[in-house]
Amino acid sequence: MRAGSLDRVIEIQRRTTGLDHYGTPVEAWTTFATMRAQLLKNATDDREGARGHTTDAVLTLRMYYFASLSLNDRLLYEEKHFEITGITEIGRRVGMDVTCQRVGA
Question: The whole model's pTM is what?
């Protein structure tokens, strides 16, 4: 993996719990890390589901190995949120390919 090909900036966000003004627990997403990545694949997935016909944006990004990344985290890329659906390790902790799907509309 060449550093020059990592031409995109992504933020890794993790779900946290805080308190609002009344002391009620509130879940929020906070930025855990900011990394550089390479966009390998940008596709759309058309399918028929329980909600009818849907079109999902699917990305595959390559980045340096990040040990604490999990499927519970999400990515922020170009001001859009993406849920992580797959993580593939490259080599022995050299890098990783992360497949993610767009969250929301």
Answer: 0.79
